[in-house]
Specification:
Radius of gyration: 19 Å
Number of strands: 10
Bound molecules: adenosine monophosphate
Helix content: 40-55%
Shape: globular
Structural class: alpha/beta
Strand order of the largest sheet: 1-4-3-2-5-6
Oligomer: single chain
């Protein structure tokens, strides 16, 4: 069983002990409702560190007023069972008051990159993310923090914050874990009815069509976007955004041709009963051979 801490002082005491024993610390921040994607991050941390700490905190500051904070799935016992099975050493599951005591007044924000893609449609979202992640990173004093590619923009925003503020923790990005049909695992997939779940599989399908054309040599931005949008349209889907952006600087859209490492990022609402579930996904396109292999694997899943 991992240690479970809900108070900062308990966590700090435990971390001091680990530091005294010169144990390397791996940190995996989550909002709970854990699935195989989170499990992969935790597993990787356990393989490479003496001590892995998973945080579970549904952070109110990163949800907009009309978003799903109140209804966000909370499955603490299942989460704990999974973390125990993987073998992490500790869980930090604080209350909102523990993280944001009265008169909390600091705001950490990363300008530019936080305002494009998801940031353009969820104003303030990444400020909420950077605030909580920096606070958690300061408490954890981890050697390495593990983040998922599924939230690619989040990884880039946090990397920028860590570079700008010279934070000593190293960031590792873990590739997206997907369902058999290619859908990126997400805590929000559990909101999907069977019919909506089927429709959601069109998202990886449309991305995989682009990946296939790209590997076949197509680099024209307009043709690749057209291909993707057509596939979505066939199933009455219209993305909130679908954009090629430069990995080296997400504030820059790719023009004309894909010439350097590029991310194709999408946000798509899927209607499910009387709600709309917002799903995001992305693929990285470049000529690196490891990435080529993972794209091929993705294509065969999503188009089969
Ligand atoms: P969340 O609980 O949604 O805040 O996610 C916690 C961490 O798990 C973030 O770094 C996510 O990017 C990562 N994550 C979520 N889903 C996946 C997935 N399907 N594959 C890999 N990482 C993921």
């Amino acid at each position: 069983m991992p240690f479970v801490f809900t108070r900062r002082h308990e966590l700090l005491h435990y971390i001091n002990e680990q530091k005294e024993k010169q144990q390397s610390i791996g940190f995996v921040p989550t909002m709970g409702a854990l699935h195989a994607g989170h499990a992969q991050l935790i597993r990787q941390s356990c393989e490479l560190n003496n001590c892995t700490i998973v945080s579970i905190f549904v952070n109110p500051k990163q949800f907009g007023p009309n978003e799903d904070f109140a209804n966000y799935p909370r499955t603490f016992q299942n989460d704990l069972d999974l973390i125990t099975e993987i073998g992490a050493q500790a869980v930090f599951a604080p209350s909102v008051e523990e993280m944001y005591p009265q008169r909390f007044s600091t705001q950490v924000s990363v300008s530019g990159i936080s305002e494009v893609l998801c940031g353009a449609f969820r104003p303030g979202h990444f400020n909420g993310v950077t605030n909580i992640v920096l606070l958690l990173m300061n408490l954890m004093r981890a050697d390495t923090m593990y983040l998922g590619q599924k939230d690619f923009q989040q990884v880039q925003v946090i990397k920028k914050m860590v570079t700008d503020l010279a934070h000593p923790t190293t960031i590792v990005m873990v590739p997206t874990v997907r369902e058999a049909d290619g859908l990126a695992m997400s805590s929000r997939n559990r909101y999907l009815t069977d019919a909506a779940r089927k429709k959601a599989a069109i998202i990886p399908r449309a991305l995989a069509l682009v990946a296939k054309e790209y590997l076949a040599g197509e680099t024209a931005v307009s043709s690749l976007l057209h291909l993707c949008l057509q596939e979505l349209k066939k199933f009455d889907l219209e993305p909130q955004y679908l954009e090629f952006r430069k990995v080296s600087d997400l504030t820059q859209k790719c023009q004309n041709h894909l010439e350097e490492e590029t991310v194709l990022a999408i946000a798509q609402f899927i209607e499910s009963n009387d709600t709309k579930v917002r799903l995001i996904d992305n693929i990285i396109l470049d000529n690196n051979s490891t990435n080529k292999l993972s794209l091929e694997e993705f294509i065969s899943r999503a188009l089969s």
